[in-house]
C-alpha cells in the first residue's frame, strides 16, 4: 500500500499545493480582518444578541461593515465541495482515459482497487481537512457578532452551509460525485459539468426542506402580554392569535400593538398571540441530519466507483458435452 500512497501523492501534489495555498490565504485574511473587527466592537455588544436585542449605532456599524467579508468567506466554504468535485474528483480517473494510460494503470500489479484506494483515500483526507479548516475559520470570525442585529445569523444559507460538520461531509460527497462522473464519462470537462449539477441539486433541495426536519418552537403570550423577543431564533413565518378554545387562528388582521390591537383582539374573541420559531440551538440537530445525508451519499457513490472498477470474476469454461468421456480419459 505504501507504493500506491507514494504514487497518489506524486500525482496529486499540484492539487495539494493549491489547496494549501488557498487555506493559508484564507487563514491570513481571517486573522487580519477578525482582529480589526473585535478591536472596533463596543463593550456593550454581548447584550445585543438578536435583531431586536438593542439599538446601538456603533455596534450596528461594525456588524454591517463586516457582514459582507464574513459572508464572502462563508461562500468560499459553501462552494468548496463543488470545487473539490470538479477540479479534484472529476480528473481523478477521467484523466487516465484522456491520456490513454488507463490500460497501463489497470494492468499494474497493485490492481485497480488498490490504486483507487490510494488516490481517492489521499484526496478524501485532504478534502476533509480543507473543509474542516474553512468551516472553522468562518465560525471563528463570525462568533463575536453571531446572531447580532442585522446578522449574519445561523440560519443564513452561507453561514449554515459554510460551517459545521455538514460542510465537511458535503465536501466528501462532492469528491465522490466527481470521481464517479469522471469514471462514467471518461472525459474531464463533461465530468466537471455533471459534478457541479450533482452537488448543487441536493444542496438546494436540502436547503428548501430544512425547516421540515424538526418542529418549530411554539411561543405564546396571553392577552396583551408582550411577546417573547424572537432574538436569534429563525421565524417559521407562522403566527397569529389564540382562541378561547385553545386553538390558533392564522389571521393577520390586527395591528401589532397598542389600544387598536386590544380592541381588535376583543372584537374577535382572541385571548392571546402566538408565533413559531426555530431557536438557535436547532443549528446542531439540523447540521447532524444534513451531515448524515451527505455522508450516506458519499459512501453510496464511492461504492458505485468500486463496483465499476472491480475486475470481473473469472468463470470456468463450460464442459464440452459432445466429447466422449473415454476419449478425454485416454
From TrEMBL:
Keywords, A to Z, come to: Membrane, Transmembrane, Transmembrane helix
Superkingdom of this protein's organism? Bacteria
Which residues span the membrane?
Answer: 70-94, 115-143, 163-184, 191-209, 283-306
Spell out the coiled coil positions from the record: none
What is the protein name for this chain? Transporter
**From which organism does this entry originate?**
Streptantibioticus silvisoli
Amino acid at each position: 500500500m505504501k507504493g500506491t500512497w507514494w504514487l497518489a501523492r506524486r500525482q496529486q501534489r499540484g492539487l495539494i499545493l493549491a489547496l494549501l495555498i488557498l487555506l493559508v490565504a484564507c487563514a491570513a485574511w481571517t486573522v487580519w480582518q477578525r482582529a480589526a473587527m473585535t478591536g472596533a466592537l463596543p463593550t456593550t455588544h454581548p447584550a445585543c444578541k438578536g435583531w431586536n436585542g438593542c439599538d446601538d449605532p456603533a455596534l450596528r456599524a461594525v456588524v454591517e461593515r463586516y457582514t459582507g467579508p464574513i459572508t464572502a468567506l462563508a461562500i468560499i466554504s459553501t462552494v468548496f465541495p463543488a470545487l473539490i468535485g470538479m477540479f479534484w474528483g472529476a480528473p481523478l480517473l477521467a484523466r487516465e482515459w484522456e491520456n490513454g494510460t488507463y490500460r497501463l494503470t489497470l494492468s499494474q500489479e497493485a490492481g485497480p482497487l488498490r490504486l483507487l484506494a490510494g488516490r481517492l483515500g489521499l484526496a478524501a483526507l485532504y478534502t476533509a481537512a480543507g473543509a474542516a479548516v474553512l468551516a472553522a475559520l468562518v465560525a471563528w470570525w463570525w462568533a463575536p457578532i453571531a446572531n447580532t442585529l442585522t446578522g449574519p445569523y445561523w440560519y443564513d444559507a452561507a453561514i449554515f452551509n459554510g460551517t459545521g460538520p455538514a460542510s465537511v461531509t458535503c465536501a466528501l460527497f462532492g469528491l465522490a460525485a466527481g470521481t464517479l462522473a469522471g469514471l462514467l464519462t471518461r472525459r474531464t470537462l463533461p465530468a466537471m459539468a455533471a459534478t457541479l449539477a450533482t452537488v448543487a441539486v441536493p444542496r438546494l433541495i436540502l436547503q428548501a426542506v430544512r425547516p421540515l426536519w424538526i418542529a418549530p418552537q411554539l411561543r405564546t403570550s396571553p392577552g396583551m402580554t408582550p411577546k417573547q423577543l424572537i432574538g436569534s431564533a429563525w421565524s417559521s413565518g407562522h403566527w397569529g392569535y389564540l382562541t378561547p378554545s385553545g386553538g390558533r387562528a392564522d389571521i393577520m388582521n390586527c395591528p401589532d400593538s397598542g389600544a387598536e390591537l386590544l380592541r381588535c383582539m376583543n372584537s374577535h374573541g382572541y385571548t392571546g398571540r402566538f408565533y413559531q420559531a426555530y431557536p438557535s440551538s436547532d443549528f446542531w440537530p439540523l447540521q447532524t441530519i444534513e451531515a448524515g445525508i451527505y455522508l450516506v451519499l458519499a459512501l453510496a457513490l464511492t461504492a458505485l466507483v468500486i463496483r465499476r472498477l472491480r475486475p470481473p470474476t473469472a468463470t470456468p469454461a463450460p464442459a464440452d458435452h459432445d466429447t466422449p468421456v473415454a476419449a478425454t480419459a485416454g
